[in-house]
Amino acid sequence: MAESPSAPSIARVRIGEAPSLARIDLVSSARRVAALGAAFAAATGVALPCTGRSVRAGEFTVLALAPDRWQIESEGPPGHAIAALGAIAGESGSVVDQSDGSRAFDVAGPGAREVLAKGVPIDLDAAVFRVGDVARTGVALVAVTLRCLSAEPSFRIVVARSYAESFLEWLLDAGAAYGVLRERHSASPR
Amino acid sequence: MSARPGAGARLADGGLIDRTRTLRFRFDGREYAGHPGDTLASALLAHGVHRVARSFKYHRSRGILSAGFEEPNALVELGEGDARVPNTPATTIELFEGLDAQSQNRWPSLRFDLRAVNRLFSALLPAGFYYKTFMWPAAFWERVYEPAIRRAAGLGRASGAPDPATYERSYGFCDVLVVGAGPAGLAAALGAARSGARVWLVEADCRAGGRLLAERLAIGGEPALRWVEATVAELESMPTVRVLRRATAVGRYDGGVYAILERVGADRAQSAPFEPRERLWHVVARHGVLASGAIEQPLVFENNDLPGILLAGAVRAYANRYAVLAGRRVVVATSCDDAWATARDLLRAGASVEAIVDQRPAAARGPGAWAPDGVPVETGWLRRARGRDRVRAVEIEAASGRTRRVACDAIAMSGGWAPQLQLATHLGERLRWDGAAQCFAPESWPPDLSGAGAVCGEFGLAAALAAGARCGTGAARALGFRATDLVLPAVEPDRPLQTVPSRAARAVRAAFVDWQNDVTIADVQLAVREGFAASEHLKRYTTLGMATDQGKTSSLNGLIALAEATGRRLEELGPTTHRPPVVPVTIGALAGRHRGRHYRPTRLPPAHAVAADLGAVFVETGPWLRAQVFPRAGDRGWLDAMCREVNTVRRAVGVCDVSTLGKVDVQGADAPEFLERVYASRIATLAIGRVRYALMRREDGFVMDDGTVARLGERHYLLSTTTAGAVDVYRHLQYCRQVLWPDLDVRLASVTDQWAQFAVAGPRSRELLGRLVEPGIDLADPQFPLLAAGSVRLGDGTAARLFRVSFCGELAYELAVPARAAHRTLERLFEAGAPLGVAPYGLEALGAMRIEKGHVAGNEINGQTTAADLGLGRWTTKDGDSVGAVLARRPGLADPQRPRLAGFVPVDRAQRLGAGAHLIALGAPRDAAHDEGYLSSVAYSPTLGHWIGLGFLRRAAERVGERVLAHDPLRGRDALVEVVETPFVDPRGERLRG
Fold first, then answer.
1. A122 and A92 within one domain
2. pTM for the whole structure
3. Is the ipTM of this complex over 0.90?
C-alpha cells in the first residue's frame, strides 16, 4: 500500500456533489414491515433489501438503513416518487419526503478509500464493503449514509443538509494529501 | 572495527549509519555533527557527551541510560518556539539536518545547576514527601505549592503557543496485527501474510529488525539484516500487507481495537506539505500477535545513575548499530549471560573491558557467559560508582566480601530482560511471575492475542523465529486462511539465556530504582516501614513507575526491592496495572483535525446566508450557528439591537429563523396511542388541523422537553422539539417505539433538516403572510385561528406548512418550507414586509420576549424540574399512563415545598439582575442553609424598560408581592427583588389573538 505522496501532482481522488435526486424515507414498523415488503415486491418485482444493502428497482435505488427503514433515491421529481411509493405502501409504511433534508457527495478514485479511512470507522476493503453495500455511520462526528457505488472505487455519502458545509470542508481537507479533483457534477454510476 | 585514537567515540567503520553524509545539529546551543542513521543520543555519545539531563527531584547529573523508548533520563525539548515538543527521549529522536534540542530540568544551565542544592536537603524529600510536606494550609496548594512543584519538576515546557503541526486520525482493519518487527514479528507477519490474510506490521523504530539491528548475528549463513531486508521487501510487495515504521501500538481495547501512534514526520525538521506530524491509527484486528520484545533492567547500586552507566544491551546497540563506543574502559556488571556478549562486542570494537562482574557463582552461569582470556571476571556485586558528572571508578564487592576499586569510564549493566507485556494486560488481564523463565507472563493469553519471542521469555533467535512463524500461521489458520508452515532459515542454536533479576543493594541513599522520578532503594524501604507494602501502594506512595516512562526500567526492580524488604517472593507480588498508553501520546494526535473551529462540526440552518447578508452576529447554540442580534450602525452594543428588534416585533412585524427546532414526523395506525404514552400532555383530543403545546417527561418524572404536536391527518402528526433537545427526544422516541412498545404501528422520521421554519411575529404578521401565500387563502381568525395548523401554497408555488403559534406573545405564525426554498422564502418575507416595517430578530430578542411572557426554556427545563415546578401542571392533567407519570408522583417530586416558577423585578428598577443569583429571605443569613431558590433567566425588558427575571422560589405562589434578596456572590452584587406574577407583558393574552 502506497504512502501518501508529499506533493500531489496527479489527483488520486475526485470529489463532487451528487446530482440532486428525490430522496424519500420509506418507514414501517415491526407489525407492518412484512406487508410492506410483500407490497413492494409485488409492485416492483424486486424485494426490499436487507439492512446494509441496496438494490435498483425500476426508477428507484433502494437503500436499506434499518430492518424497518429504507431510503429511496429517484431521478424523477419527488412528487412522482412520493405518489408511487404511497400507492405501494398504503397503510403499511410512511412515505416521507427528505429530498431537501440532505446533500450527497461522491468520492471516487484510487485514493478514495484512504481519504475516507480518516473518518469512516468501518472497513471499506473491496471484499468487505462491496459494491451496493450501505452503512449508516459517523464521519468526523457527522452522521452519514455511505454507499459503495462502483469498484473503481467510488462512494456516495449522504449528510444532513445542515452539516453539509462542515462535512465538505473536512472531506476536502482529508483528501488534500492525495490531490483532489473537484467535480461539478458527479459522473459516478447510480 | 576499531576506535580511532582520541577522535571522539565514533568507531572508524561499521554501524548502520551513512558516513557519506554529515548532519549538523545543536544541543543546548552547541553545534555537533552526526550521520543519517544516528539518533540524537548516539550522535551525542559519538562526541563523548554523556551528561544530558538533570534529575527530577535531586537535580543529579544524568546520562543516556538506554538506546530505546524506555529511556528515563535523556529527555529533551525538541524544536523552538511554537514547534517545541517536550519530554522526547533523545534515544528515539532520529537525527536530521538542523535538529535543535535542549536539555530539560536544569537552571540556569546543565553544567551549573542551582537546584542541585536539593541534594543537600534530600532528607527532606523522602518517599511520600508530597503527602507529608504539602498538606496544609489548603489555600497554599493553588498559590504556593503547585507552582513551586511544577517549576521544580521541570518535565519539559509546553510551548504555550498554537502548534503549527497538523495531526490526523485514521482507521485501519486487518486480519492479523503484528506488533514489533523483530525476528519474531517478521516471521509472524510473513507466516500470516503468505496465506492471503490482511496483515499489518507495526514497528516503533524507523527500521525493521528489532534487536537484530543491535547484534552481530547471522541468519541463513548471512548477516541477519539481509534476511530482515528480504522479508520486509516480500511483505511490502503484497497488496494485503501494510508495514508501518515509527509506529507504536499504544493501547489495546475491546473488540480487537488497537491505538497505534505513527510519528510520520519524525525524521525531519518540518513535515512535508499535507503531511501530518503524527497520525493516530484506530486499527481493528481480528487477531493480534505481540512481538514487542523485552527491555533490559538496570542494576541497583549506589550512584548507579552517574552518566556513563548504561544498560549493557544499549552499549552493544551503540557499538554495533551506531558505531559508537559508550566508553573505552568499561566494567560489565550483570545478573545474566546476555551482558557477556556486550563484553565480547566491546573487545572486538577495540575497547578495554576492565572487569566482568556477575552476581551468580560460576556454576550458576549459562553457556553464554564466556569471555576471551585475560578479561578479569569477578563473582560479586557493584557496591558504589564513583565520579561526579561521569563515572570514573567503581567499587566491586566480591562474593568473598573483599572490595576493590576499578577505574573505568563506563559501566554496562544488566539486571535481566523484562518482557514488554503492556498490551497483553490492557483489558484487565493479570500477569504472574514465571519462576522458570524469571520474568512475568500472562496468566493466560486472550483468545484473540498471542505472543512470540522475547515478550514470552523466548530470548534466543531460533526460538523467536520459530515462535513467530507458529503464531503467524496459527492466527491465519484460526481465521480460516490456508497457511503453510514457513521454512525458516538456519540459525545458530540458541544458548538458553538465564535472565536473573538483580539482587537489590543494601539500603543506601543514592541507589536508584526509578531514574525518572528519583526513587531510591531507601525510599522503597521507607515506604514499606510506613505500611505501604503492596505494589500498588508502593507505586503511589513513592511515585515509582509513575513518570512518563511508566516504569519500563524501574517497576521490576521496585518489585524486587519490595519482595526483599517484606520477605516475600515475587510470585506473591502482582505487578502494578498497566494502562494505555504504552508510550506518551501527544494531545495533538488525540485531537487529530478536531481543533479550533473544527473542534466539532458546525450546523447551519438552510437560510444562514440570508442572515449573514443582513449582518447578523452569530452565536453557537450546541452545534448550530444562530443569529444572536442584527446590529445596525449607531448601536452602542447588542442591547440596543435587541431592544430595537423586540420593539419591531411588538409594534410591527419581525422574522426569526427557527429552523433549528427539532421536527419529527409520526405516522401509523397507533400514532395517537403512541403520542398519548410519550407525552405527559393530552394528545388524544387534538383535532386534525390543530397544534398544541405539550410536555414530555423522562422516565424519572422530571420534564425532558417541551414542544408542539400538530395533527396533519388522521394518523399523521408533526412534533416539534427544542433545538437542544432534538437529538435526545428523537432517540427517546425510537427507544419507546422499538423497545417499550414494538407492537404499536408507529413510524418515525426526523425531518429537522427537510424543513426550514420561520417565526413571523407581530401585529402585522398576518398582513405580511397574506402577501406571500397564494391569492385567495384567508388567514383571518375564523379560517386560521390561534393554534391552527395546515398546508398552504405560497405565491411562487412552494408547498408550505403554516402554524399559528407564538413564543413572543404577539399575533404570530411559524411558516415551514422545504429547505431548498428557505433562502428565497426568507428573502421574500423581507421584501414583501419592507413596507410593513419588517425586521429580522435574533436569539437575544427571542429570549427577552419569552421571558416577558413567562415562557420556560432550557434554563428552566434543566432536567431538575417537574411540570409543577415550571407552573405547567395544567399540561399534565390527564388520566391514563404516560412515560414518567408514576415517578412524577413520588413524594420528593410532588412536595408542595419545592421551589416554583415565579417572576422577579428589581425593587430599584435601574438595577440589573444576574441569572444564577440565589434567593434568600430578607434578613436571613446568606448561606446555603437559607437558600430558597434561584433566578434561572434574566433579561432587560424593552417593553417595560427595566430588568426582569424568571426563577424558582419556595412557596412562590403565596409570596407574590414579597421582597427577597437575589444574592449573587459570583458577580459580587446583590439585588432586592420583588416576587411578581407572570407574564410580565400582556397577562391576558390579548395581543396573542391579534
1. no
2. 0.90
3. yes
